[in-house]
Amino acid sequence: MRIANNSSSSRDFSVTVRFSSASDIRVYGSWNASVSGDDDQVTVRGTLGAGRSITAGFQAGKDHDDSVRSATCSVSGGSCRVS
Question: Sign of the C-alpha dihedral, residues 24, 26, 31, 34?
């Protein structure tokens, strides 16, 4: 995901990606941010300097063989979309 801070001061960010109920998601790795999650959501957090952007992401898996796609996302102080 690409996260941008268009303001003139540093900002903390938090992006939550939600999956279908009982997806049993487990996070195994991440880059450029702190990531936590389990069951049906993953949250990406960090601090971004003024006028900066980053690409952050995570590796996750699940115990079941069926595939799962993120359904919704939310951002503290901003907007996001699932594509």
Answer: positive
37's CB contacts (< 8 A; 6+ apart) are 25, 26, 27, 43, 58, 60
**Residue in 55, 64, 52 with CA at minimum distance from that of residue 25:** 64
pTM over 0.85: no
pLDDT in tens, 48-75: 999 999 999 998 887 766 667 777 777 7
Closest CA to 72 of 80, 60, 63: 80
